[in-house]
Design goal:
By secondary structure, the chain is an alpha/beta fold.
């Protein structure tokens, strides 16, 4: 589903650049944010179909940002995938409880990332209106 808009939120510049590069090379429209405030600012101007959400962000963490996005009627339809190195046993359950639609632990291989994104965007397209 080339051309689909994706927002990547990650405070690690290397992780951010790598994910953006991999997905841009696959034809997706990519925007990035290094923290929740930058993400919220970006979301005021632009609406992605999918967000890759780091859970450990400075200030407001990814759990709280996801809860806020899912509580907003205008944004609740955006798919959110938690992509995090914060991979403790209960963290996947916490991410899903916060409203994330999927969860993957870092590091994520490029092929795995592309497949995960394609699967989530396919699910968005197939969902009833």
């Amino acid at each position: 589903m080339a051309g689909e808009p994706i927002l990547i939120i990650d405070d690690n510049p290397t992780n951010l650049k790598l994910a953006a590069f991999v997905l841009a090379k696959s034809g997706y429209e990519i925007r990035t944010a290094a923290d929740a405030d930058a993400a919220l600012s970006e979301l005021e101007r632009w609406s992605p179909r999918l967000i890759l959400m780091d859970l450990q962000l400075p200030g407001m963490d990814g759990f709280e940002l996801t809860r806020r996005l899912k509580a907003d009627p205008a944004r609740r339809g955006i798919k959110v995938i938690a992509v995090t190195a914060y991979a403790m046993q209960r963290d996947e359950a916490r991410a899903l409880a916060a409203g994330c639609d999927g969860y993957v632990a870092k590091p994520v291989a490029p092929d795995t990332l592309r497949a995960l994104v394609a699967k989530q965007l396919s699910a968005v397209s197939e969902a009833p209106s």
